[in-house]
């Protein structure tokens, strides 16, 4: 990790259809090989599928799904006196959102299915209903932090 000053936070412009920075962040995580229009098309079709299946506003469904996946605590390795401890730390809100988006996309990609649109919409729907691989990943992270609560005094 760099010991220089921390990088400035970049401004994320909202997407043209939903006018949401969250949708832009998700499209940027889907992005492969710089093909942003392909990523946006996948995301917008998945959002349309969500709206058709839930009869609710797809942006609200997405927000709730990301809230359900966002972790509150995580563990970081800390080296103290020759041994490494997994120290539980509270997660910053920006980092929590970033982790949630990353886990959502990763679990959508690893799902079985034919198209990325269907895999993504199903994963968002599962996260909205508090099931699925991304929510399981959050619960694993929380369990790991709970198990290593004894090392909380090594917090930095």
TrEMBL record:
UniProt key word Magnesium: no
HAMAP family: Ribosomal_uS7_B (MF_00480_B)
Keyword set includes Plastid: yes
Any one biological process term the GO annotation gives: translation
Designated name of the protein: Ribosomal protein S7
Family named by the database record: Belongs to the universal ribosomal protein uS7 family.
InterPro entries: Ribosomal_uS7, Ribosomal_uS7_bac/org-type, Ribosomal_uS7_CS, Ribosomal_uS7_dom, Ribosomal_uS7_dom_sf
Domain (Small ribosomal subunit protein uS7): residue spans on this chain: 2-149
One Gene Ontology term of the molecular function aspect: rRNA binding
UniProt entry keywords in alphabetical sequence: Plastid, Ribonucleoprotein, Ribosomal protein, RNA-binding, rRNA-binding
GO CC, any one term: small ribosomal subunit
SUPFAM superfamilies: Ribosomal protein S7 (SSF47973)
